[in-house]
C-alpha cells in the first residue's frame, strides 16, 4: 500500500513527465543488468528534440537507444566502460570512452568533476522501512543517486533485493514509475580445451584460504570449476557471475579469513542468468559495495592471499598489458584491472594474474613483440606479475626485459616463438 501511494503521489498526471530534460544536460544510466529498460525507452523517445545530452554509464545490458545513429546529434555517450551495445557508436565517433580507474569513478560525481542533472535507476519494491534496493549494481550508482539533481526510479518486481551500498531511502528518489520486466541476462560461452588448460595453471596458484577476484567469461568459469575442492576461500570481486554458484553450494567460499567484510562475500555488481539473480535476492551473506570499496587498492592489499585474475587482448614481451583496445579502436575499458592488479600485488601472499589464450581465434599471437600502435596500456610493465596461457604460467615480477622476453616467449604458441624472439633480439637487445 505504501508503495502504491508513493507511486500515485510522484507519478502526477503523466508518469513520464519528469523525463524531459534540457539540452546540454548530463544523465547517468544504471549499470549492467540493472539498466532500467522502460525508463531508457521513454527517456530517449521524449527527448528526441534536444541536443548534446551526455550519457554517463558503465556497461549496460539490454537496449541502448542513445547510441543509435538516429540519435547521434541528440545524445553523446561517454561511458566509463564500453559494452557491446555502445561499442559501434564509440568506434564511429558517436560519443567517446571516458578512461578512469573504477576505484576513483564514484568521486567523479561526488567531487563534481562530472555534475549530473538526472540519474535513471532501477529499484526493487520498497520495504516496510521505506528502503528500496538498487539490486544487482552498486558500482558508481550510489554516488550518482547522491549527487544528481533529479533521480527517477523504475520499480521492477523482478529486480533482486540486495544489501550494502544498494539500499536507498524513498526520500532520495524524486519520481517513480512502476514497470516490471525480466532483467537482461548473460550466458557464458562454451569453454574450450585451451581455457581448461589455463584454468589448471591458475588453480595451482591459488592456495586454500585465499580471497579471489574474477571477471566474466570462459576462463573465469573454467577456473571456478577447478576450485571446488579448495577450502575456506574468500570472495572480494568486482562482478559476481554464475561461475561462483557451485563454490557457494559446496561451501568452498566461507569468507572467514579475510579482514575486510569478514564472513561476507563482496562484489560491486552481478551479471548472469536468472539463477544467479534468484541466489542474490534477499541474501544477507552478500554485500554489494561501490567501487571505492571493492576496487580500492589499499583495501585489496590489506587482504592476505588476495588473488586477482584478469584478461588481456595482448601482452608485449616487456610485460605491457593491453586490455581495452585493438590499437586505437576502443573495445571495452580498463575496468577494474589496474586496481585489482595493484592491490593483489601488494597483498601478503597475494598474486596478480593476467590470463589469456596464446592466440586469437584467427591464430594471431596475443603475446607480441610490441603492442599495436595506439593500444592502451591498462597494466604497465612495472605492475605486471603473473601471465598465464595454455602453455604455462610465468612470473615477471623482478625480472629484466631480457628475462621477461624469454619467459613470455616460452608460453607463447609454439608457431610464434621463433619470430617473437628474433624480433625481440633485433628491436630491443641491440638498442638496450
Explain what the structure shows.
The chain has 14 helices and 24 strands. The protein is globular, with a radius of gyration of 22 Å. Helix 13 packs antiparallel against helix 14. By secondary structure, it is of the alpha/beta class. 27% of the residues lie in helices and 18% in strands. The N and C termini lie far apart (74 Å). Strands 3-2-1-4-6-9 form a six-stranded parallel sheet, sandwiched between helices. Strand 10, helix 7 and strand 11 form a beta-alpha-beta unit. The longest helix is centred in the C-terminal third of the chain and has 14 residues.
What percent strand? 15-25%
Described by strand count, sense and barrel closure, the largest sheet is: 6 strands, parallel
Shape: globular
Structural class based on helices, strands and sheet pairing: alpha/beta
* Helical segment count: 14
Compute the separation of the termini in Å.
74 Å
Question: What number is the mean pLDDT?
Answer: 94
Q: Low-confidence parts, pLDDT < 50 over ≥5 residues? A: 7-13
Q: Helix proportion of residues, in percent? A: 25-40%
Q: Widest sheet: strand order? A: 3-2-1-4-6-9
Number of strands: 24
Give the secondary structure arrangement, pairings included.
Elements lengths: L1 H10 L14 E4 L7 H10 L6 E4 L18 E3 L6 H8 L13 H6 L7 E6 L7 E3 L7 H7 L2 E6 L7 E2 L2 E3 L5 E4 L14 H13 L5 E3 L4 H8 L8 E2 L3 E2 L4 H5 L15 E3 L1 E2 L3 H7 L5 E3 L2 H4 L2 H5 L4 E5 L3 E3 L4 E2 L2 E2 L2 E2 L6 H9 L5 E5 L11 E2 L17 E4 L2 E4 L5 H10 L3 H14 L5
Parallel strand pairs: 1-2, 1-4, 2-3, 4-6, 6-9, 7-15, 10-11, 10-16, 12-14, 13-15, 16-21, 17-22, 21-23
Antiparallel strand pairs: 5-8, 17-18, 19-20, 23-24
Helix pairs in contact: 6-7, 13-14
